[in-house]
Specification:
about 150 residues; mainly alpha
């Protein structure tokens, strides 16, 4: 069976051997060029064959570190202020709802249960939301402690 035959011929033909040899030459040439470039850069002697990457960035100065810390503290303070405002607004809504419920209960004489239940339901939802916000603030403060500590 020759090169051009059909069917199940030999798997190692001359063309395949030539292609493998060409690929091997290309690969070795690529490695040789890489080594030469590293020698010219002065990297092979110092790094014992390890690939050279870009030099590590210099450590940030003390001023930069202090500025970064001040920004983080200011951001944490702003978040706390925002959370406190949200808590105050939520508490005010709950109190207003409670006053409204009390006024509606005093004015209601017909005994219709629907508006009063809706108000009670909203009051309950506001309380749940307040507890949720308080829990969220507690989790956030714990998370900040661990982030700053690490």
């Amino acid at each position: 069976m020759g090169k051009g035959s059909r069917g199940l011929g030999p798997s190692d033909t001359d063309a395949q051997r030539a292609a493998r040899a060409r690929k091997e030459r290309e690969r070795s040439y690529g490695l040789q060029v890489e080594r030469q470039a590293m020698r010219e850069a002065g990297g092979e002697g110092r790094h014992h064959g390890k690939e050279m990457g870009p030099p590590p960035p210099p450590p940030p100065s003390q001023e930069i570190l202090l500025a970064r810390e001040r920004r983080q503290k200011a951001l944490a303070y702003a978040r706390e202020i925002e959370e406190q405002k949200r808590q105050q607004q939520l508490q005010a809504r709950i109190e207003a709802e409670a006053c409204e419920k009390a006024q509606f209960g005093a004015n209601s004489t017909d005994g219709s249960a629907s508006p009063s239940e809706l108000s009670e339901r909203e009051y309950h939802l506001m309380n749940m939301l307040l507890v949720h916000e308080q829990n969220k603030m507690a989790v956030e403060s714990i998370r900040r402690i661990y982030e700053n500590g690490s």
